[in-house]
Amino acid sequence: MGVSVGKAWSLGMLSTNLALLPNNKKKHVCSQQQRKTITISWSLVCGFMLFILGLISLFTGHMLSDLEWYSHRLVHPNFYSRLDGNYRAPIDIWKSKLSKYYYGCSDRGRDYAPAVPEQMSNGYLLIAASGGLNQQRTGITDAVVVARILNATLVVPELDHHSFWKDDSDFINIFDVDWFISYLAKDVTIVKRVPDKVMRSMEKPPYTMRVPRKSEPDYYLDQVLPILLRRQVVQLTKFDFRLANHLDDELQKLRCRVNYHALRFTKPIQELGQTIVMRMQKMARRFIAVHLRFEPDMLAFSSCYFGGGDKERNELGEIRKRWTTLPVRLQPCFLSTNYFAM
């Protein structure tokens, strides 16, 4: 770059000197310098173009998202609905003019069988979700799929009140339960509780069991269904990641319908989230949310020592006894400690 600038300055000086020469000498100098000047000029042009391309490649990654956003705003102004002076939320894409360019991967197939009515189902499935809210959300999603596999009536899942956070919230406090039931009506019959008539007719309390992690559908059909048919009501405990990842297409689509459509937060939670987002958007155009996940099980799996002395070592040692595959040796993680303290 410095060489090109130097050449440009030399050419500028050369042009000034040529202007001061007599006409007969100008022709002589020009005839000697013409080819060289043309070559240097093309070098300058190419260098300038490469410099511009470099700038474009540097800033394109940061500009494309904004350009795309503004282009949609200009070309499709109805795609956004104004909520207040500073926030615009996208409307349902399936109701927009652009919907013809998209297709839903969660739509039911043409041969998808309707949900089994409550009176004709194989029994009632109780689910006790486990872990934090993310794990419980996964458990709820899989619970619907398991109920579909078993042709069972699903009772609204029970959330975990004994995890690290000791949160006493129920399903109805976090998710819109009526929407959950109605949206999945074509997939699985869902009720808020086991009918009293059924409970009174049972000779024994509901059968409780825990299935292995990542269990295949065949496991539920072979091990859970016979018990369900015999006992009418079965409760699956610690229900987190208890269903295999790879399922047939229709069951995978059902997972999507549950997770991305049926599980809708209650109105107060949605309003609070909207308020937080709007306030953050007033402070900056871009922001990121970080979940530090500083919990006992995370500490156990990290195999780190965080500088808390013998008390910390003993407490983490007791927690780590739950998993026999964890390494025994503890290593100092001062970087992690500083990170979480930030």
Automatic annotation (TrEMBL):
Q: Any transmembrane segments, and where?
A: 42-64
Question: Which named protein is this?
Answer: O-fucosyltransferase family protein
Q: Does the keyword Amino-acid biosynthesis apply?
A: no
Q: Which family does this protein fall into?
A: Belongs to the glycosyltransferase GT106 family.
A single Gene Ontology molecular function, please? glycosyltransferase activity
Q: Which UniProt keywords apply?
A: Carbohydrate metabolism, Fucose metabolism, Glycosyltransferase, Membrane, Transferase, Transmembrane, Transmembrane helix
Q: In its UniProt record, which GO terms are filed under biological process?
A: fucose metabolic process
Matching InterPro entries: FucosylTrfase_pln, GDP-Fuc_O-FucTrfase
Q: Name one Pfam family in it.
A: O-FucT
Does the entry feature the keyword GTP-binding, yes or no? Answer: no
